[in-house]
Each structure stands twice: as structure tokens, then as C-alpha cells.
Amino acid sequence: MNNRNFMKSYFGSHKGIITDQMKGMPYPPLQKPYDEESAEIIDLPEFDKSIIQKNDIFECIKDRRSIRNFTDESLTKEELSFLLWATQGVGKIIRDGYATLRTVPSAGARHPFETYIIADRVKGINRGVYRYLALTHQLLFLFTQDDMPEKLNIANLGQKFVGDAPLVFVWSCIPYRTEWRYSIKAHKAILLDAGHVCQNLYLAAESIECGICAIGAYDQKAMDDLLGLDGNDEFVVYLAPVGKYGH
Asked: Which strand (E) or helix (H) includes residue 80?
């Protein structure tokens, strides 16, 4: 019953809570920081409407399915660029970094997610783990491991298609970005926001004739450890393998 009450909570509930925003505390950074001097940064290519294979949004919605079998075909760097933009692309930075307007909605424009990419078969991108720098539309190289597919399969409870995919999107959450404004009311909003992000990936992928399968069943600690996350101030909340599907 308590869980159901949480689902029914709303932003007017929990009256009397003083949020960090109300206290005048600084708002959290829009993006997880990194060492700019030693960082290996990859510029993502521009793209335009010509990348779209299915221009009819009705058909994309109608045909969208969770796909667990992918061909051996690699994705292009342009396709990766498009999918990243479609899921977390920044259209506008509000004031001096208070908030961002992106291609997906987020409660209070807080956008609490970081996007990690585990690339295995993407043309022009070496195998490895990357983080998307949404503010500049770039990739930050993190590390590479030869046994990453096997580790992915184990961390995802034996769902072998995850490790077999040419590309895996992994979204982590930094809760304080939303807690700063909403305190304990933040967590329902964060879960809703995750759905917005993944649905955009579904439709964007369908438009370029790729398939995805949203994954919620995974070993939390194993996935956090795989990306080097602390599991408290940042942790994995959702992931999705991406690949070309057969006709």
C-alpha cells in the first residue's frame, strides 16, 4: 500500500518541506564534470533529415516493437549522433546553467540523467565505453575491455542479446539534480523522466530502421560497477541495446 501511495504522490504533497532551491543553495551542474586536460573527446558528426528511413510518425509508432535479435550490421557514426541527440540533445541552456531545454521533457527541466554508450560495432568509433556530453554534443571516451559483452550478459541476468548488440545505451541517474528542486518528491518524477527518454530512443531508432529493447531487469551493483559509478549519488536506472533488425 505504501508503494501505491508513492505512485499517487504529486508535487503539492509533503507540505512543509523546504527544498535546497528554497534555501538558496546553488543548483547542481547540468553535466557530470570531467578532467578536460586529459580527456579523450570525440566530436559527433552533424546529421539532417536524410538519415531518416521512415518519415511517417504514424508508421513509426505503429511498427515500434522491442527487438531482441539484431543483424551483424554496424551502426554509423551519424546514426549514433542522431540517436544521442534524439534522447538527450540540448536545444537551449537557460540563464547561466540553471536548466536546459532538451529533446525530451523533464520535471522542472532538471534532466537528472547521464547517457553512457557501450559501443561494439559502430563505424568510426572504437570499441569501448563512452559518456555523452550533451552540452557540446560530443563523446567522452572512458575505457575499453575485451570481455565487455560477457560482463554485460552477466550484469543483465543472462539476457544474451544485450552483450550481442552493436550498441548499448545505459542511463544513469544523478538524483540530486531533481532533489535540489523537489526534495523527496523528486523520485517519482525521475522515474517518469526515464520513460520519456527511452520512448524517444524507440521512435528515433524505428525511424532509421533500428530496433531496441528497454531493459529494467539487471543486477544493480554489477551495472554500477561496470561503469564505475558509486551506486548512491549516481547509479544505473535503465538501459537499452540497439541494432539493425532484419526485414
From this structure: helix 77-88
Residue 11 in this model has a pLDDT that exceeds 60:
no
pTM over 0.85: yes
**Which residues, listed in sequence order, are joined to residue 139 by a DSSP beta bridge?**
42, 132
134: nearest Cα among 86, 182, 192: 86
Q: What is the C-alpha separation between 230 and 121, in angstroms, rounded?
A: 28
Whether pLDDT at 25 is above 60: yes
Amino acid at 228: G
Q: What is the mean pLDDT of residues 111-137?
A: 98
Residue pLDDT, tens place only, 178-228: 999 999 889 999 999 999 999 999 999 999 999 999 999 999 999 999 999
CA 30 remoteness from chain centre: 14
Identify whether 100 is part of a domain.
yes
SS3 77: helix
Domain that holds residue 85: 41-244
Q: What is the CATH number of the domain that holds 50?
A: 3.40.109.10
Q: What Å distances lie between residue 99 and 36, 175, 183, CA to CA?
A: 22, 15, 17
